[in-house]
C-alpha cells in the first residue's frame, strides 16, 4: 500500500483499527433504533478507507457511505455484502457503473431520480450500458421492467436525500413538493432509505436540530413508506428523537469528540509521530525559523522534526501547539515550515536525532490541534498528507 518505508519517513500515522471498531460498537449501543453505518469518505477521514472499511466489515458493519463514485469503486470488493452509498449522488453518464457494481446512489434531485429510473429502459439494458449517451435521448418508459436481481437484492436500489436545511445536496422544498404529488417518478426504484443531514448536531441546544427533525418527518409523511436515515456522529448523541433506521457516523468512528464541551466518549484512534532530524544548541537571543518569530530567552536546545505543513501539520500551529515526549509536553517554537517543525527541547536532554515525538495522539488529540489551528478535527485528519506512511494496528 505504501512505497515509502516508515523507517525513512519524517513522520508516521499510526491507526488503531481496534479503536475504530470499538467506537463503532459504542455508537451501535447508543443507537438501538437501527443499524449504524460507517462513513468512510475523504479516504476514511484521512486514515485509509480500505483498511477502515475492511475492519468495520469484519466487525459486522453492513452499510457504508463515501462521497464519490471513485471512492466507492476503490472499496467495493472489500465489503462484498454491504450496502455502499455515494453521498455525492449520481454523476450523469455513470449510472451503468453504479448498477454494475451494486453501488447505491444517494439521489438528491428530480433529475437524478429520473436518470436513475432511465437505467431500466430497454435501450440502455440492450445497448451495452449506453454510457456517453445524452440523458435526453433515452426514451421515457412509464412501466419499467422489474430490475434483474444481483446478489439477491433489488438492483435499482437508491437512497433519497431530502434537504432540510443544509442547502447543499438533496431535494429542495419545491422538488420535494413535486415528488410528493407524483410518486410514480419513483416507480421501479427500490427506496432503501430516505435521508437528511443535520446542520448543527454537535450543538445540542441549537433549535435547528428540532426544526430539521420536523421538516424531515413532514417530508417522509408525503413520500412512499421507506426506512429513514438521519443522525451523523453527533446526532446519535442527541437522543432517541434523532434515532432512525440507519445512523451515518463518520467523525466519531475516528475518535473525534461528537459531544464538544463534554468528555469525549470515543477511543483515540490516531497517533502522528514525527522524527527528530537534528538537535542543535543556540545561544540566548538567537532566533528560530522563518521571520525569526521566536527568540531564545536562555541558551537552548532546538529539535527539528521532519513534519511540516505539507504533511497537514498546519502553519497556523506556529507557536500554538506542542509535541509530547514520554507524556511530557515539548513546546513548538517558531514558524511551522513546509517540511519541518522546531521544538524547544532544552528541558528534555533525552531527545536526540532519531527520537520520535508525538504530534497527535492521546496527549494532544485532533480536536486539541484543531482548536489551536482554528478549525475542526475533521480537517486535521483529512489534511494528513499521503506522504506520511499509515501503519495499522489490527482490530
Ligand atoms: C459526512 C457526512 C456524514 C458523517 O458525518 P459525521 O459528522 O462525520 O459523523 C453523514 N451524512 C452525510 C450526508 C455526510 O455528508
Topology of helices and strands:
Layout: E1 11-16, H1 17-30, E2 38-39, H2 41-45, H3 49-59, E3 63-66, H4 69-75, E4 83-86, H5 95-100, E5 104-107, H6 110-118, H7 122-126, E6 157-161, H8 173-181, E7 190-195, H9 207-221, E8 228-229, H10 233-236, E9 270-282, E10 287-288, E11 294-295, E12 300-305, E13 322-325, E14 328-331, E15 341-344, E16 356-360, H11 366-373, H12 377-382, E17 390-393
Parallel strand pairs: 1-17, 2-3, 3-4, 4-5, 5-6, 6-7, 7-8
Antiparallel strand pairs: 1-9, 9-12, 9-16, 10-11, 12-15, 13-14
Helix pairs in contact: 1-3
The structure holds pyridoxal-5'-phosphate (PLP).
Pyridoxal-5'-phosphate is lined by residues 39, 41, 87, 197, 232-233, 248-251.
Account of the protein in words:
The protein is an alpha/beta fold and 395 residues long. The protein folds into two domains: 31-254, TIM Barrel (Alpha-Beta Barrel); 270-393, Lyase, Ornithine Decarboxylase, Chain A, domain 1, CATH 2.40.37.10. The chain is 25% helix and 19% strand. Strands 2-3-4-5-6-7-8 form a seven-stranded parallel sheet. Strands 1, 9, 12, 15, 16 and 17 form a six-stranded mixed sheet that branches. Helix 1 (17-30) crosses helix 3 (49-59). The two termini are 18 Å apart. Residues 39, 41, 87, 197, 232-233, 248-251 line the site of pyridoxal-5'-phosphate (PLP). Residues 39, 41, 87, 197, 232-233, 248-251 line the site of pyridoxal-5'-phosphate.
